[in-house]
Amino acid sequence: MAAPPEARAEASLSADLRALASSPRELWTVYAMKLLESVAYFAIWSLLVIFLSDDHGFSDTAAGSVAGTWLTVISLVMFLAGFIADGLGIRRALVIAALSTAVGRGMLAFAGDKMTIYAALAASVWGIACMKPTMNAAVRSYTTPATVSFAFSFYYVLMNIGSLAQGPLITEFRKWFKGGASIAGVTFSSSQMVFLVGFVVSCVNVVLALSMRETKPAASSDKATKNPLTIAREVLREPAFWIFLGFIALLTFVRLILQHAHLTWPKYTLREFGQDFPFAYYWSINPAMIIVLTPVATALTRKYPPYPVITIGATITAFSVLAMAVSTTVAASVVFIVLLSIGEALWSPRLYEYTATIAPPGRESSYMGLSEIPLFLAKPFVGFLSGYLLSVYCPPAGPRDSRPMWLVIGLMTIAAPVCMLVFRRNIERRAPAEAGPKPEAAA
Predict the structure, then answer these.
(1) pTM (2 decimals)?
(2) Where does the pLDDT of residue 376 fall: very low under 50, low under 70, confident under 90, or very high at 90 and above?
(3) pLDDT-based confidence at residue 8 (cuts at 50, 70, 90)
(4) CA 20 to 30 Å from 140, out of 34, 105, 112, 406?
(5) CB within 8 A of 236, min separation 6: which ones?
(6) Would you say 140 and 149 are in contact if contact means Cβ atoms under 8 Å apart?
(7) 243-263: string of b/e by CB count within 10 Å (b at 16+)?
(8) Where would I find the Major facilitator superfamily (MFS) profile domain in this sequence (predicted)?
(9) pLDDT for residue 3
(10) Are 201 and 37 in contact (CB under 8 A)?
């Protein structure tokens, strides 16, 4: 008699953990860096528009535009950083990236005027942009075909543990330092105290990156060129890359929900449910669910190609936002987060795997970076749209009707899984074989 799915998943998880334990220590260093970076990045992302409005008087539209521009520049630099990271190598790329984030977050923690804020955000751009494709490439480089699926799932779980940590960090700091805090004669707002934590963990990442060995992973191509322009030309000539980019462009509509979750939803909750509403704690439902669901979902779906799994997950995520278009209640927000998380547990880790496995050896960072092109084009729009929708449907004062705001966002998002289903044959038929399930992984 066949074992039940739960038993098969448990056995698979145990085997995957044992296989992953034999990976080089550099993989575990990257995991530690990803965990710390996630704490800092998600905390700053969630607080940035609130910090700009509450501490520096930015309007909703202005705060959303600043945040959207910052995220857009990160995406712009990210698809350029991939070429440079492939040329620099993993260790050097991570050292430089960690230094950039430490400088930017240190400046943001001490920022007392708008120009310093702009300079701080600019200083952190390179580090954030370079770290993501380089870390993704490192996971691919320091794993084998038999462990790559679980390695990316574990990587995604660690990212969400970091995201989970930012929930209590933000909520408790907003309570403890509601009136600000003074350290060595310097006054910090509650938001700046959170940014200070981000600065400290970024400094730890500098030390971790320096501890990595310079040796080249065996999975890398010995013939890989070190010239970023040559790398760019080679990648852009590959037909597989353009098929991949079209797929990513469709998925971008779904990924924008996460932008609204950090730019639109926090202000929405504070205005609809009160300024003391613990939005960060409620958002912690998302990473908590991802931590639990991702390894199980990966174990149960690993025998299937990434595309159908990503499509199913994207459909669930796309419909999640409609809960708040029906009801302006805390319960509706919880339904939104729960459905979004179920879908995300399916599509997001498999997207990492899909991206890394279709890239030729030595070109992982380039593919990771260039995969941000569609999101780069969309981020300035979603930043402005977030501020505009809030000002129209959920202003800080006066009558509010937030349901149409979420209906607009939901209708824009649902277009993605529809198109993914319509164009499935075209994308799957021409996708490279490497993106499918591997015999070693399916065993």
Answers:
(1) 0.68
(2) low
(3) very low
(4) 105
(5) none
(6) no
(7) bbeebbbbbbbbbbbbbbbbb
(8) 26-428
(9) 47
(10) yes
